Amino acid sequence: MRAFSRRHRRQLLLLDERPSLLLALGRFLFRYRSELAPFATATALFIGGAVFHSQEPDAVPWLLAATVGIAALTLTRGFPWNIDRTEERVYAALGTLIAGGWLTAAAALGPSHEPLPLLLLAATIALAVPWWTHRRRRARVRVDRAIQAWPDIAENIGLAGSRVMSAVVDIWGWRARFHLANGQSVADVLSRVPAIESGLGTRPGAVRIEPDPAHAGRFMMRVLAADPHAGAIPWRGPSVQSVNSPIELGVFEDAATIRVSLLRKHILIGGTTDAGKSGVLNVVLGNLAACPDVVLWGIDLKGGMELRPWASCLARLATTPAEAAVLLRDGVRVLDARAEAMSRAGARLWEPTPKAPALIIVVDEYAELVEQAPGAVESAESIARRGRAVATTLLAANQRPTQKSMGGGALRSQMSVRICLRVRERRDVDLILDRGMLSAGWHAHTLDAPGKFYILGDGHTQPRRARGYLVTDDDVQTTSARYAESRPCLDGLSEGALVGLDDVVEGEVVTEPEITLQMALRDAPSDGLSVPELMHFTGMRRTWIYDRLQQYVQDGRAAQVARGRWRSSADD
């Protein structure tokens, strides 16, 4: 009786295992359905050939015509498989011809007629090899399996109830739209990005999370199989011919081009040392140099180290605190003159043209300006507050734009376009972009190469990683030489504001450039200063310098100490 019971239990166990084996087999076939697709197709062709041979032997001409037609459409238009790449179209067309040809022969002769079975096996293996090794197919399989595993992953990482709404495979990886459970937010997802990467089995830093602007309970997740920005992206030259057009700065991780308008936009570029600020500045200057409707002024208190290569395209370049203060005061004068003229004419916006260009003032390392020329900060803030309408704007680069380094919060608050490169501390993200940006997914502290950045403003409101174009020294030299001769001058109204607006200094009426000229002559060495040097200090033209020097000689305030060299007279 006991032996019978053991034997009975063993039979019951075997009976219980049969459904589990069938279920396991079904799960295996379903899990690897993509890999087994060539053999499934061959099996379907064999069965189809048997059916046509026994039931519809007269369908051979129709099968042949359909095969040729579908192959032709596949090769030329990717129809009906919706294929866009040429190599994929060729593979699909060839597979269609082989499968259709074999089916036609099987319908006429029978699928078991020699050598049709052997040909079917050989064709299946030959077509299966590229199918198995195809990158996009394997990516789709990984995505499909990730979607199937998401409920378990979500439960393990604290996002139980979230579900996948849709998924798309692209050239760099895949992206999917998710719906969160009630009570969950995108902030919860952002805090779990490392756990998501672990659950999906990706490399660290592969997952990107973007909020859905239309629904607080949804988000987009992007998974990158490889870093598309691992290598530098060469600059192809200026992308615009007018400041009215948005320039191209670089590309996002989905290969979309970054376009940003510089007209009537104050721009802040921030990032730590060697993060790529100079590279972004070079892209901006390279594009603006090609625009005949914008005048460029530059301030570089590091001796002109960054901006001097573009000197031939800059109408003025200040490399000392005194020069910077004069340049910014002149910017305010241009702004005031334009605003007054527009008020009289009833105009609301200054529309840049080659004869009435916009004015963009580029300031490299703005913190140096605040520290070395604190008196210039007021002028810069005035331009930031009032310059947009009159097309007089600032582009400031700074490592860490704290309230102190920016000379107060007024200037930083006016920067409508912000570019954040790599930062050392997480809190610096909010300093450069705005408060709350770090928690919203703008993780600039994780950027790992020069030139990678986030951009906020001008239609860019989602945290998308980008990389700027690489502008080489040869590119700078070539571009500046190409456009140096075609650079515009300020319009007559603005030029008149610089020459005609006067200050009172020591009881006599002189202009701002004259103040600089007199100071330069007074502090000149014993062998004097040349006219090009005086032009550099004042930012004025050669004829203006000669006119003032002749007047000073007549008044006894200056003397020519050598041929072409000048300084203040001994009794001045």
Concise description?
With about 575 residues, the protein is α/β, with parallel strands linked by helices. The protein is built from 19 helices and 20 strands. α4 runs antiparallel to α5 (about 115-135).
Provide a descriptive summary of the structure in words.
- There is one protein chain.
- The protein is 46% helix and 17% strand.
- The protein is an alpha/beta fold.
- The strands form four sheets. Strands 5, 6, 7, 8, 9, 10, 11, 12, 13, 14 and 15 form an eleven-stranded mixed sheet that branches. It has a four-stranded antiparallel sheet with strand order 1-2-4-3. Strands 18-20-19 form a three-stranded antiparallel sheet.
- A hairpin with a 4-residue loop joins strand 6 and strand 7.
- The radius of gyration is 35 Å and the shape is elongated.
Keywords:
572 residues; alpha/beta; 11-stranded mixed β-sheet; 4-stranded antiparallel β-sheet; 19 helices; 20 strands; 46% helix
